[in-house]
Every structure is written in C-alpha cells, then in structure tokens.
C-alpha cells in the first residue's frame, strides 16, 4: 500500500490529500529515508513524521485491506514508538 494511502487509512492524518502534501514536502520518512508518494509500506517498516513541534515514529504492524479502518482498531495496524 502506498505511504499516503496508508497514513490516511490508519487514521494518522485526516485526509489522503493532507498525507500527499506531507510526503511531497519531505516530512515523512520510512526507515530513515525520505519517502516519495508512491513508496510502498510493508509490515515492520518504521514511519517517521517530522512535525514542527517534534517527531513521531510509528511501526507498521499490519496493512489494511479496506480503504479505512475504525479508529478503535488503529492499534492493530500501527504502534507508536516515539
């Protein structure tokens, strides 16, 4: 699954267009490498998002098969590590 689609599917950002803008502006990294919008996410990858007020890191636990998941199921798909 593409990084921009993954970020919106697991509710890390509200909309996919916001996720696309974040990736294009260079604040999203996968395993320490700046991500491109078409970058595929795999189980075990570490996603780093560099916000203005700090950095958040997430580990991919599972890839969703549907467009969106319930917010209550977020912990099954992504784990916040920093």
Automatic annotation (TrEMBL):
The keyword tRNA-binding applies. Gene3D superfamilies: RNA-binding S4 domain. Keywords: Protein biosynthesis, RNA-binding, rRNA-binding, tRNA-binding. InterPro entries: RqcP, S4_RNA-bd, S4_RNA-bd_sf. It holds the Pfam family S4. Residues 1-60 form the RNA-binding S4 domain. It comes from the Bacteria. SMART domains: S4. Belongs to the RqcP family. Associates with stalled 50S ribosomal subunits. Binds to RqcH, 23S rRNA and the P-site tRNA. Does not require RqcH for association with 50S subunits. Key component of the ribosome quality control system (RQC), a ribosome-associated complex that mediates the extraction of incompletely synthesized nascent chains from stalled ribosomes and their subsequent degradation. RqcH recruits Ala-charged tRNA, and with RqcP directs the elongation of stalled nascent chains on 50S ribosomal subunits, leading to non-templated C-terminal alanine extensions (Ala tail). The Ala tail promotes nascent chain degradation. RqcP is associated with the translocation-like movement of the peptidyl-tRNA from the A-site into the P-site. This is RQC P-site tRNA stabilizing factor. It comes from Hydrogenimonas cancrithermarum. The gene is rqcP.
């Amino acid at each position: 699954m593409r990084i921009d689609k993954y970020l919106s599917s697991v509710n890390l950002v509200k909309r996919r267009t916001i996720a696309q803008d974040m990736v294009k502006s260079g604040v999203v990294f996968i395993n320490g490498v700046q991500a491109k919008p078409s970058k595929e996410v795999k189980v075990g990858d570490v996603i780093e998002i560099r916000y203005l007020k700090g950095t958040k890191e997430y580990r991919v636990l599972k890839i969703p098969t549907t467009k969106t998941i319930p917010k209550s199921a977020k912990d099954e798909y992504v784990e916040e590590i920093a």
